[in-house]
Amino acid sequence: LLWEKPITEWGWSAWVQTMYSNFLLGRHMHPTQIQRRLVAAGDRVYVTLGFNAPVSELDAATGEVLKTYQGTEATSEILHVDGKLILGTRQAGIGVMAVQPEDGRILWHYNADDGASSLSRQNLFVCAGGGGVYFFAGDGITGIDAGSGKKLWHTSLEATAAGDKQSRPKAKGKGKRVGGRYAYPSLLYHD
Questions:
Q1: What is the CA radius of gyration of the chain?
Q2: Strand duo 106-111 + 95-99: pairing
Q3: Is the separation of the CB atoms in 98 and 86 below 8 Å?
Q4: In this prediction, what percent of the chain has a pLDDT beyond 90?
Q5: What are residue 109's DSSP bridge partners?
Q6: Whole-number Cα distances in Å, 67 to 39, 79, 125
Q7: CA 158 remoteness from chain centre
Q8: In angstroms, how far is CA 191 from the centroid of its own chain?
Q9: Residue 43 pLDDT > 90
Q10: What is the mean pLDDT of the chain?
């Protein structure tokens, strides 16, 4: 074991009281974005040291906390792209922000709360590359400029699926969900 770090405010009691207050969850349910809260870049590790804690920068060799980024509380997803931290957040709504790791300066913040679906309120499934940041918001996928945080485009998934009715899976029962209770989408950027 190289090092270990205690994580406070963790477990079902932390997330039931915050993120999932409108859902009936038990002790064995957990947020689906947990694995997207830690990223290693060079000799640094970026992580939330609590469910609603801000992002911290750790020395990868020692585990020492080098910085804690104020204004990044309630981060649910962390990416390190082109020398910047791209964060999916749940601060008074959902959003995406870029942070300069060297000084902790918030470069931009995009409010993704407008028309957000229940799925995107839980997870944005953020990915980035090619100068853009992409995530689920509302009824589809939104692309924003990684440098400025300005919206570039939005594509409705319902409109896209409606155009190709033959290849679309048929939903059974009253709901429109296809894929089962635990089916979550993912976004990947491929260059």
A1: 18
A2: antiparallel
A3: yes
A4: 42
A5: 97
A6: 15, 17, 25
A7: 22
A8: 21
A9: yes
A10: 78
